[in-house]
Design a protein that fits this description.
The structure holds 2 protein chains of 2 kinds. By secondary structure, chain A is mainly α. Helices cover 72% and strands 0% of the residues of chain A. In chain A, helix 1 packs across helix 14, helix 4 runs parallel beside helix 7 and helix 9 packs antiparallel against helix 10. Chain B has a two-stranded antiparallel ribbon with strand order 1-2. In chain B, helix 12 packs antiparallel against helix 13. The chains are: A mainly alpha, B mainly alpha. The interface between A and B is large, with 98 and 96 residues. Chain B: It is a multi-pass membrane protein.
């Protein structure tokens, strides 16, 4: 490539990068400004006096630590549960020959076509009947067992299909049972696929918004996305400084983990099953 | 066979069903039962406050046909989905092509373009909502170059555009990564042969690249279309469906009817409509693959 073309490509890339970087930059720097500077016009790109007032207020106005914990433990449970359910089912559909396997696989895949918004009304009534409204059960059980885990099962199946069968045959000859083969041989080999599934399952749970606002009503049960939108003044207008500091606390840890492990994140997602 | 009951194939069948049992039971309980119930509810008038549940046959569907707001919601959904899919796929492809050049720093840019995917959706939307205020950061930047920006989220035309752009920037990284993987799978000798034959870069892109990555274009367009029909948090945070009903997409309208106005029966009817649209669009795209997808692997 000529020098000129290179400069052009870099120029386009830098320009396009702006809307991807600027919001995060703006969120963090604004959250560190004293409240009067947040609304200064024209805005300053760098906080002149650093203030953590908005961060302190986030914890005063709502049980924010508790809400943080809620989101963390729900996402962790959903991730572990989904890994278990989807690796078992994906392995069986790829590796075990049994009658009806194809039929049930197609039946389960139907879940991919059903947005959770379609079933939210009956799910609300079901959990209401079981006395589980305003608990975390719907946010844990539905993602692990329902439609969101179907994509995970599909990815695991694609991965196990591509695995060579000789190791398993040898283990069978040695008299190992199905579950032992799955746990001792197939599962350790499936680390990349499990990693990709873990990442997008965690993010999916961490991002849920419709489900929490439908199922949860008391503030100590709230998850982070729901809590973020609750920092409003008496007129329902957002308290920007506090929303931005709470948003920074929500976004930054995941972002830091991503930057450290970006290669595994991106290549894991690109090369496992999602390619179809 | 006659001496042993637990033959290999019987064992495998038992193992297979035990392995898929959690997923299968979960699908029945949290996918198929609710789906059946949605149809059942849609045939009823359900007043939550008065606690009445009466069979009304097709009345909700008649109401659907007569609902003037539904037309607005479908138009908004159509605008949003079409705008999102076109912008998302073309930007994703552009970014993937740019990053597929042999250049230093592509890993850095790849990380930058992917990073919004891992930012919490509501956090991302709140920041943009702040940036798009009349006196917010975007208009601040525009003023630096002498442009007087509009109040993005309060104008009929600009609100929808803003919602689409916010959502594209959030998720385009995912499609970019899938395109990048597909581009790297195109054999280099095809380009070499084309160069020898004197084909221009543009010609090569249209006659080699696009056909070779068409399976990925199909996959990403299905994922993006289905995803575009589920947009909810962005609307709820950025515009609450306004101004007027200009950004009230179908899912947001469904939420309003069911959980704000407590019309559960009508909400269920809207759910049936949403399901029908998703099913139809997926089937159409799947059938069209024969026309333009180059090969199936």
């Amino acid at each position: 490539m000529s020098r000129r073309a290179k400069t052009a490509v870099y120029g386009v890339l830098c320009l396009l990068a702006l809307p991807f970087l600027f919001p995060t930059w703006w969120m963090v720097t604004s959250s560190l400004k004293p409240v009067n500077d947040v609304f200064a016009f024209p805005p300053s790109l760098w906080p002149t006096d650093v203030s953590f007032d908005a961060y302190a207020k986030a914890f005063e106005l709502q049980p924010f630590a508790r809400q943080y914990f809620n989101s963390m433990y729900i996402a962790a449970l959903v991730t572990i549960g989904t890994l278990a359910v989807s690796s078992l089912a994906g392995y069986a559909f790829a590796r075990i020959r049994f009658k009806g396997a194809n039929f049930w696989f197609v039946v389960i895949l139907v879940g991919l076509l059903i947005p959770s918004e379609v079933t939210i009304v009956p799910l609300f009534k079901m959990f209401d009947a079981w006395g589980m409204v305003d608990t975390h059960w719907p946010l844990i059980l539905v993602p692990i067992l329902g439609a969101p885990s179907v994509l995970a099962t599909f990815i695991m199946r694609q991965f196990f299909l591509a695995l060579p069968g000789e190791l398993e045959e040898a283990a069978k000859v040695d008299g190992l049972g199905r579950f032992a083969i799955f746990r001792l041989i197939a599962l350790p080999l499936a680390r990349p696929a499990l990693g990709a599934v873990a990442i997008f399952t965690f993010l999916h749970s961490w991002n849920l918004y419709l489900e929490p606002i439908v199922f949860l009503s008391s503030s100590e049960m709230f998850t982070l996305p729901q809590a973020l939108t609750q920092f409003v003044d008496a007129y329902g207008g957002p308290m920007w400084d506090i929303q931005l500091s709470a948003a920074s606390l929500t976004a930054l840890p995941v972002l830091v983990v991503f930057v450290i492990a970006q290669r595994q994140f991106i290549e894991g997602l690109a090369h496992t099953g999602l390619k179809g | 066979m006659s001496t042993r009951f637990w033959t290999g194939s019987r064992r495998d069948t038992l193992a297979g069903y035990l392995f898929i049992a959690p997923q299968l039971i979960g699908s029945v309980l949290f996918v198929f039962v609710p789906l059946g119930l949605v149809f059942w509810y849609s045939l009823h008038e359900w007043n939550v406050l008065a606690d009445t549940f009466t069979f009304v046959g097709g009345e909700n569907y008649q109401a659907l046909a007569d609902d003037p707001k539904l037309a607005d919601a479908l138009v908004a959904t159509g605008f949003f989905s079409a705008g999102l899919v076109v912008l998302n796929l073309s930007l994703a492809l552009l970014l993937a092509v740019l990053l597929n050049q042999r250049l230093r720093g592509t890993v850095f840019f790849r990380t930058v373009f992917f990073s919004p995917v891992v930012v919490s959706l509501v956090a991302w939307t709140i920041v943009w909502s702040f940036l798009l205020q009349d006196n917010g950061g975007i208009n601040g930047l525009l003023e630096l170059v002498g442009v007087d920006g509009p109040n993005w989220l309060r104008g009929e035309g600009t609100a929808m555009l803003a919602v689409i752009v916010v959502q594209v920037v959030k998720n385009v990284g995912l499609n970019m990564v899938l395109f990048l993987a597909a581009l790297q799978g195109v054999p280099a000798n095809l380009y070499e042969a084309a160069t020898v034959d004197g084909a221009t870069r543009r010609r090569q892109f249209l006659s080699i690249t696009v056909p070779m990555i068409s399976p990925t274009i199909l996959l990403t367009s299905i994922i993006t279309v289905v995803g575009s029909l589920q947009v909810f948090a962005q609307i709820a945070v950025l515009t609450q469906g306004g101004p007027g009903t200009s950004t009230t997409v179908l899912v947001y309208y469904l939420y309003q009817q069911a959980f704000q106005f407590h019309h559960f029966g009508y909400g269920a009817t809207l759910s049936v409509l949403l399901f029908a649209i998703v099913l139809l669009l997926t089937l159409v795209q799947w059938r069209m693959r024969r026309k333009w997808v180059f090969h199936e692997s």
